[in-house]
Amino acid sequence: MVASRERFARRSRRVRYGLRQKAGGRPRLSVFRSNKYIYVQLIDDQAGQTLAAASSLEPTVKAELGSTNDKAAAKRVGLLIAERAKAKGVTTAVFDRGGYRYHGRLAALAEGAREGGLTL
Q: In this structure, are residues 49 and 56 in contact, taking their beta carbons and an 8 Å threshold?
């Protein structure tokens, strides 16, 4: 029987493989979701460099919302990463959901990034 962590790793690899095929040189918006926080990075895979990052752990998000593990916090982090991406001159990216389902906090984060002006 395959352990759940291994299944998650397989899903992550499968998703990233598909993204590499379709990315066309666009940076990757990578998401990590823990039980308490949500983290997102804008990564340029060609240069191997992180362009921007945001998380619900940041003091501005924590002070503004109070809770760090709900959809409102995820949406605020999406708006924050979009703002930072625009400051770096990035307007389009591919959404790397990792092994997570596009649902709940991940969907709220992507929606927030789109509202902030990032094309996913």
A: no
Q: Using an 8 Å Cβ cutoff, are 42 and 89 in contact?
A: no
Q: What global pTM score does this model have? A: 0.90
pLDDT tens digits, 13-60: 999 898 888 888 899 999 999 999 999 999 998 899 999 999 999 998
Outline where DSSP puts E strands in 1-106: 28-33, 38-44, 49-55, 94-96
CB 110 within 8 Å of CB 78: yes
Distance CA 82, CA 85 (A): 5
Sequence letter at residue 24: G
Domains of the chain by range and CATH? 4-115 (3.30.420.100)
* List of residues 6+ apart from 45 with CB closer than 8 A: 20, 23, 27, 28
Beta strands across the sheet bearing 94-96: 49-55, 38-44, 28-33, 94-96
